[in-house]
Amino acid sequence: MNIHEPKVVLAKKSGFCFGVKRAVDLALKTSGPIFTLGPLIHNPQVIARLEDKGVRSVESLDQVEGGRLIIRAHGIPRSIVSEAETRGLTVIDATCPFVRKVQQTAQSMSREGYQVVIIGEANHPEVIGIADRVDRPIILETLAQAAALGRYLRIGVVAQTTQSEESYRAIVRELKKHTKAMKVADTICNATKKNQEAAKALAERVEVMIVVGGYNSGNTRRLAGLCSAIVTTHHIEVAGELQAVWFEGKTSVGVTGGASTPDWIIKDIVERIEHGF
Ligand code: F3S
To answer: What architecture is the 98-188 domain classified under in CATH?
Structure first.
């Protein structure tokens, strides 16, 4: 960049959450061939790096010919784990400990005779993995769905880790009308929320925001959306997409990354803006 370099500020919290970092590190340090059911993470650059290390994403166990299977951070149903073991695969469990906790909580509520209600997206792999550990689970996402439920002797409630707290609380209030005995587990992980709060706070005090992460990453797109409501924002995947014109006349730039964006990409972008590209 030929113009004056603006001051670059990194969001107080950005990039990989604990569970994703753990899963990627586990995959990188395991020797191949390694398979994952679905991409380990929604970031093309990390996926390319993993592929170089022999980590391949497949859609079903039928595509796996020996090797190791890494369970992704949001977990999988037990039936798939047993099937993989039956097929002679070594299973490496990278389920995020917070997700594991939800699975265990739901399972013990179910064993204690509670009707388990999972608040989350029915088609999300994390919810599918939780539901698999429960007897006749009810999955719901909206207040209207909760209101339409009948009455139950006992209800146990857990949430998909990425649910919004406001809507979780509202649904829990509704569910209380449907039983006399209710157990509610606090299973929301605030890693995403902390990234969002830090990004918004930064967007308030800079002239332009750069949000880094996969175009296929839902949480990165959400971050970009939140920031663009506050200040001019550009969502990019890699430093090569930076354009000098974005920084002309600007004195401050904020940078953040989604929960699936690795530190090395964020760092590269910060350095390029600071020292020219
Ligand atoms: Fe785990 Fe929370 Fe990340 S549940 S995978 S640390 S968003």
So the answer is: 3-Layer(aba) Sandwich (3.40)
